[in-house]
């Protein structure tokens, strides 16, 4: 007696993902890791990209995102942008320097939904994550951190968390946390702050401890110094959820956090132009970017 012949999947049929067709069928990956982009080969799309569109994206980045990244040298980013597009000859960009420029274009292009070549900028920025995967230096930390920020703004906090973890590991491997330079200090402060917010959002434990950074001095009134102080309060608030204590202790901890937030708001208003919950239309540039950041963090 002969049964029906076995049915084998067609080579032209649906591609099996991770050895299990059901993973793709139920879209499990997208549930866990937000909206994963389809894998794309690394391409150099800038040969046929509008220079004018890229310039618009860069300018938007410099106004909106760059002020929140004090470790970046804006002049160097602009110079490397011109080199990337072949406007300045004789110099080949390092992998990390190129990734920083491409990530900047992605961050600048993302809010500009009508910008020509916007999707190409985003695709290219995500492809850069592979190119700096094995680079261990300060610039690679910056590039990976910028890619993490791009994924956060694109609505993929879990992918942001993965990139951020990579940036933190690179920073420790490169010894950034032990350096006394201003760039290294600002890099560690930014990693500390970004991780504080993303871990609070996702309910995960941060890996950069308070002792891994040098605290801002009292007379440091820069925006990034204020941001570090705010994120210290954020971490104190987060610890309330992990306390295994009495209700009275929880209420006391919550009251302490509330008072710290009130004190921070007063200090911020006294030493800067910013006011939590204040009007946005009176601000522009870096002031506006930090106003939004502080309001979100608080």
TrEMBL record:
One of its GO terms (molecular function) is DNA-binding transcription factor activity. GO terms for cellular component: nucleus. Its main location: nucleus. Residues 160-224 form the Xylanolytic transcriptional activator regulatory domain. Pfam families: Fungal_trans. The keyword ATP-binding does not apply. GO terms for biological process: DNA-templated transcription. SMART domains: Fungal_trans. This is Xylanolytic transcriptional activator regulatory domain-containing protein. It is found in: Nucleus. InterPro entries: AtrR-like, XnlR_reg_dom. Keywords: DNA-binding, Metal-binding, Nucleus. It comes from the Eukaryota.
